[in-house]
Design a protein that fits this description.
8 helices, elongated
Amino acid sequence: MGSYEENYLAKRPQHLCHMCGKCCRVVTTSTPYAQLKSMAESGDKGATDFLSLFEPYPSIEAARNVDADVVDNIISRLKNDGKFDENNITFYGCKFLQDNNLCSRYETRLDLCKHCPSTPWSIVPPNCGFEGWLFWQREEIKQKIRKSKEELLELKILRMKTIDKEVLKKIDAVEHKIQKSIDFYKKYGSENW
């Protein structure tokens, strides 16, 4: 069965990419630049890979001059999520993106690039070919979480009808496992699905 990431990546229809280069031209990360640099200096592979590919723009305005639609889309989404802090956001551009929107190191690109968009909650550029597919991926996850919540309710009913301590232990274990899967998506609002 493979990990969540492997399953997600295996299903991703790469042919949806419009080859516009926007996702390489202007990107950001949830980790502030200073923290990213510190992580890279401490040997964090993800941070090291990211900074080996992307150069920070000197300001939000500089990134906006490259692609205002992408910058404004990201800022709008972060504001809607309550996660926007202008002092902690840095936009970056890929060092390897060519004028024709192709990657100068495509054959040797890092996993970071191969896995983009990396989650159904990735903020993609406006009109990205992946927009619709990402929406359906999010909806599939929401359905699974809703089903898990129904299972939790059924377990609570079963708990009220059970006095056997061994059965109660098993119910506890299953409830814990289900709750953990729900909590994994809490940052995306799973408590409201």
